[in-house]
Structures are given as structure tokens and as C-alpha cells.
Specification:
By secondary structure, the protein is of the alpha+beta class. It is built from 15 helices and 22 strands. An eight-stranded antiparallel β-sheet has the order 13-12-9-10-11-14-21-19, with helices on both faces. α1 links the parallel β1 and β2. The protein is globular, with a radius of gyration of 21 Å.
Amino acid sequence: MFSKILIANRGEIAVRIIRACREMGIRTVAVCSEADRSALHAKIADETVCIGPAPSKDSYLNMRAILSACEITGAQAIHPGFGFLSENASFARMCQRCGVEFIGPAPEAIELLGDKARAKQTMRDAGVPVIPGSNGVVSSLAKAKAEAAKIGYPLMIKASAGGGGRGIRLVEEEAGLEAAFTAARQEALSFFGYDGVYMERFVQNPRHVEIQILADKQGNVVHLGERDCSIQRRNQKLLEESPSPAAQMDEALRQKMGEAAVTAAKAAGYSNAGTIEFLLDEKGEFYFMEMNTRIQVEHPVTEMVTGIDLIRQQILIASGEALPFEQKDIRLAGHAMECRINAENPARGFRPSPGEITSLYLPGGPGVRIDSAVYAGYTIPPYYDSMIAKLIVHAPSREEAIKKMQWALAEFLVGGVETNIDFQLNLLRDEGFQSGQFHNGYLTEEKIKELAAF
């Protein structure tokens, strides 16, 4: 087991990892930018190293600086959290060369699954259901037209190296293909440094349902049930829950999706924590979208319904230990829900709201959990993601979880900056959400304006 771990991240996930390490008796090293010297993760770690100026490219994405921090502190492993370098195969490979354990999958698995076109082909070969589409990257407009003729309209164009909803275009008819193809490639190049795109059939009114897996280095893989992440704005998740409230979701479908996720992980030679994302259609058919090779923002809902500490398991797996449980040992209990609390103004296009938090009151009580790195007097910097907390609740049923979340949101008070708390509260009161009858496109611009009117 490691005696010291460096956390190559910031915010609530860095704090979450530090807490898990404390429980395991592992010392921690935090890295911070100059803008984050007063951040909570920098304050509570056993050691802290400043690795550069505020911009991410000069600090949290500075691989050499992070590895240098490992060398000077004697950290034996690096936990990348999510975002930043968490899915960077080059960084994982650099860690290997420096004799530092990367707490995540091998670089080869990251490369395979990070290329969404290659990942789809791997899943297709393994028998995992995949949305009909192009075989690999579509390199020219002429090829795009030929693929579109086979796939049919409507269809999606997606960045092969994409994520976070970037490099995605919906094409409803042939007349819009050229403009969408060009725009998707340009956005992919701008955000990911690679303009490769692939095409696939557009699934009408799907739900975004993902399966959490854990895989050790001995070849054992288990799935931990599903999370429904269908409440999204512009492909960005706002609220997640487990189990899925989809009418078509029953134990048989859950088992089928779980088995497909395990097959997917084994086909990729995967180890550590990972998430296989599926589209679930109205008929109960599901299709592989992608695999996230890291811990997810929404991992707490799985922890709440399974009682399994995913960060702890990541560390144990990375140290070479086998999973301490088998699939038959996994049980889902109750219902969990997570709301992402962001410093932003929903009524003004979700404009970020950096600044000083002048006052803060956090809700509590049985079944209420908050993962956060903010405190009264903390100044939210303008350089990073606007998420300031995750509010998670757990209750015996979905109806009770919704009520608990409503009260928790009502008690959550943040002074000095604008937040999306009232927006989330309005969402919890929405009839469509309460009934569970929603899909990925439920939050239309009109619905968002309605929920932001407070």
C-alpha cells in the first residue's frame, strides 16, 4: 500500500480524495496554482506544492511540474481525480516512466477508449450493442455524404476525441450536412487538438444511463448498477440519480446492461474505476456511447446506494489488491440523487459568478451529504469550473429522495455570489421530473427559461 499520494486536481474532488486517504492512513500531497493558495484542498493536505500560475495550462495541466512535485515530496502515486489530466494517456505513461503509480487505467486503455471511433469498433467486436454508424473516423465531406446515405437522417456528427458535449452536431436533413460536418471538425480541433469526427444514427428521445464498474489488475470486473444522467443542459449534466426512474428499467434490463458494461471493460483490458455510458431508447434497447476512464463527478450516488467507497477502491486496485467482493455481493438499496451546485446565474444564460463567499450555510440531517471545497470567506477564482458543491441525498424511495433534496436545497444558503440552487429547486418541483418521464432533450431552452424564472 502507498504511504503517500499526490492529488493532481483541485476543488471538491481533491478534498474527497484527501479524506479517503486519511481514512486509509495515507499521507497526501496537494498541488495548487497561485490562484488556489487559499483553497481548501491546499489547506488540509499534509503537504502542498504550488505548481504554477492560475491558468490551467500552466498549473493543473503542467505534467512536468506535477511529476516534479512527486519527486520532491516522495509521493508514490498520483490520483488525477476527474478533468484535467485524468484521461491523458501521455501523462499516465509519464508516470510509469518515472516510477509513479497512476491511479487509473493503463495508458493503452485510455488511448483506446479516448478515441471514440476505435472504442465503438472494439465494443462492436465484443458484442456490446453500438449505435449504427460509421466505421471509424470520417475524413472528408464526400465520405460523410456516403455514410449519411447508409445511416439515414436524422444523424449525429461527433468528435472522435471529444467530451463535455463539444464537437457534436445534429443533422436533421441532407441540406445541413456540410455546415454541421465543418463546424464539428473545427470545434473538435479547437478543443481537443484533433479534428477527427465520426457519425451515428440519432436515437429519438433517449435517456443517458451509465453503468459504474470496478476492475482489478487480476481480471475481476463488477458493475455497481446504473446512474440516470438524462437531466442535461447542452450535453452538460445537472442532476444524476440511481437507480434510473425510466419506465423500461427493471431488474432484467439492469442485469443486461451491467453484463454489457463488464464485457466492455474486459474487451478494453481495463482496470480501476470506469463508467460505461449508454443511450437507452423508449423501447428498452440500449447502445454503447463511450467509456469514461476516470472517476465521475456523479460517483457519490453509486456510493450511497451500494455502500462502496469508490475512491478507496481505486487506491486499493492501483496498489495491486484484488476486489474484496464479487458481483453476487453487490446490492442496491434505496434511491440516491445528486444536484450540482454551481456559482452561476441561470436567468442570464448560466453566466459564471466568481467572487467572495460572504456567508455559507450547509444543509444536513440523515441521508444528506455534501462534497464541497468552499467556505465562508473563500473567493471563487474565475479561472476554473463553476461547480462549488455537490449535494447528495439518499432515501428509501425516489419520492422520499425528491422531498429530502427539496428541503436540503431550501436550506442551502450561499452569500456573495449567485448560484443555481433555486433553479435546481424548481427542477425538483417540475411535474415531468417528478414523474420520471424525461429524456436527454427534456430541458429545452423554453423549459430552462421556465425553471430559471425565480
